[in-house]
Specification:
The chain has about 270 residues and is mainly beta. It has one domain: Endonuclease/exonuclease/phosphatase (Deoxyribonuclease I, Chain A, 4-Layer Sandwich), CATH 3.60.10.10. The strands form 2 sheets. Strands 3-4-2-1-13-12-10 form a 7-stranded mixed β-sheet.
């Protein structure tokens, strides 16, 4: 709301932190655990999260029959009325004039996207990338890097993590790193993150997951596989200047083979 009298305090370190709700979700190109491609179902799950930032992995754009050859990133951004930043990992020409066959990471944002760039990651096999964006907050800015690491080996993931860490230089210190890491947060290959980031799940005072009757897995934050989640491979890592008030795993209504992770952040004003 506008402040015609100019009585609103100027942004700065003495002002309250800015709340931001973030979701990270590996969408399995919109194909649920029932084997059906159902983008409206996926959009419904995302809308229910009521997030400011939605970080998606395994998104197709005109990729082929498995996702009905649609532009998933664009359709989701329109359905949710959010800005879109796109980071392909696979980007190949097609016979169709003007179209490319793409697959990768996407950021959907209610907040203004100021900067967006894509960084290919080292490794063999399926190409991987990191999508780095900066979004504008009220009195602050936040760097958001979305990625999907290799399944091939810990050594390959370690190389990818080293490359991603280089993206967060000193002027970009306030930020979050999110995505499908294909490793436990305590895995040795993710250790380089702990010097500059903190695992948001461990930081959150309020946590809830979908362990259900499997009480021995309760509050562990499992997101994969969706039907019996016991692996916490979908993660949010936060830098200094970013607090966490809550983290919870949502029911995805069968929309993917993963479950979405929702994290409520507080970003220090004036950073």
């Amino acid at each position: 709301m506008s402040d015609p009298l100019g009585t609103r305090p100027a942004p700065g370190p003495d002002q309250p932190p800015v709340p931001v709700r973030l979701v990270t979700f590996n969408t399995h190109h919109g194909v649920g655990d029932d084997g059906r491609h159902d983008l409206p179902r996926l959009a419904t799950v995302l809308a229910a999260a009521d997030a400011d930032l939605i970080c998606l992995q395994e998104v197709d754009r005109h990729f082929g029959g498995r996702s009905e050859d649609v532009d998933q990133a664009l359709l989701l951004s329109r359905a949710l009325d959010m800005q879109l930043a796109w980071g392909p990992a696979i980007d190949e020409p097609r016979r169709d004039e003007g179209l490319r066959r793409q697959y990768g990471n996407a950021l959907l944002s209610r907040l203004p996207i100021l900067i967006s760039d894509v960084h290919p990651l080292p490794g063999s096999g399926e190409p991987r990338s990191a999508l780095r964006t900066m979004v504008e907050l009220d009195g602050a800015a936040l760097w958001v890097t979305t990625t999907h690491l290799s399944t091939r080996s810990p050594e390959e993931r370690a190389e990818q993590i080293a490359a991603i860490a280089q993206l967060h230089t000193e002027p970009m210190e306030t930020g979050v790193l999110v995505g499908d890491f294909n490793a436990d947060p305590r895995a040795p290959e993710l250790a380089p993150l702990t010097g500059r980031f903190t695992d948001a799940w461990e930081l959150a005072p309020d946590r809830e997951d979908r362990a259900g009757w499997r009480f021995w897995q309760a509050r562990r934050g499992g997101t994969h596989p969706a039907r019996r989640p016991h692996r916490r491979i979908d993660q949010v890592w936060v830098s200094p200047g970013v607090g966490v008030t809550r983290a919870h795993v949502l029911d995805a209504a069968g929309a993917s083979d993963h479950l979405p992770l929702v994290v409520d952040l507080e970003v220090r004003s004036g950073v």
